[in-house]
Write a structure and sequence with these properties.
This protein is an alpha/beta fold. The chain contains five helices and twelve strands.
């Protein structure tokens, strides 16, 4: 979804633009209005989350961060958090599988947050969150909407070639180890990702099969809207459309 913190055309993106636009669209489409599942990204301000819950109550969408729902026989899960980054906004950042922080990145316990969720950030990890979110569910027919892509794939390749911090080379892969392990171990049907906008340009790939799972990254760093069109029962036939 669009980054709240980067939109400056109105006083409040969600109240002045997003919700009215979806209301208008739903009114026009009526019974043809689609099921919409959304999460935020790491540049979005979490204090806007309350407006997403308001839109959900109106039936405009389902907000699914750290939640699950169903769609035509498939389970849908959402998770927005990413591992530590160099950016100071930490609303959607957590340690990945341990308290290790890559060179040049700021720990989730530092920086700033727009809202206090009451979590113990020092001991919270993406890995633990995913274990709780999925529980003992059979996720073989599930679709996961992640903001972060899995680590060391064609979907998380950043433009960090040759860059160093304190004489230490930066990792050119900035995805989540926890998400990669989760995919490998739990084998969901499909995972959808964003976050690393330049990855598909650098690698030439916007999809990757990890074991039994098809993973797709819709993020781009060019003009236009990237859409991944797929059939859940035939993910291999997915296509990317730039509008």
């Amino acid at each position: 979804m669009p980054h709240f913190s980067r939109y400056t055309g109105t006083d409040d993106f969600s109240i002045d633009f997003l919700i009215p636009l979806f209301r208008k669209t739903k009114k026009e489409m009526q019974e043809c209005y689609p099921d919409i599942f959304i999460i935020m990204g790491n540049d979005d301000l979490r204090n806007e989350e309350e407006h997403l819950f308001s839109g959900e109550k109106e039936g405009l969408w389902q907000y699914i961060h750290n939640r699950k729902t169903s769609f035509r026989g498939f389970q849908i899960y959402g998770y927005a958090c990413i591992p530590p980054s160099p950016f100071r906004l930490k609303d959607w950042e957590k340690y990945d599988v341990s308290r290790y922080v890559d060179p040049g990145c700021i720990p989730p316990t530092e920086g700033f947050r727009t809202i206090d969720t009451g979590e113990d950030i020092e001991f919270s990890t993406i890995w633990n969150d995913l274990a709780i979110l999925a529980g003992d569910d059979d996720v073989s027919q599930a679709i996961f909407l992640f903001h972060c892509p899995p680590y060391k794939t064609n979907l998380d390749r950043a433009a960090l070639d040759g860059m160093m911090v304190d004489h230490v080379p930066l990792d050119i892969h900035i995805g989540s180890i926890a998400i990669k392990r989760f995919i490998e171990e739990r084998k969901p049907l499909i995972t959808l990702h964003g976050h690393v906008h330049e990855s598909s340009r650098i690698t030439g790939s916007w999809s990757e099969k990890i074991g039994d799972t098809w993973a797709f990254n819709a993020a781009i760093d060019q003009k236009g809207l990237s859409v991944i069109k797929l059939q859940p029962d035939d993910p291999a036939s997915a296509e990317r459309i730039i509008i």
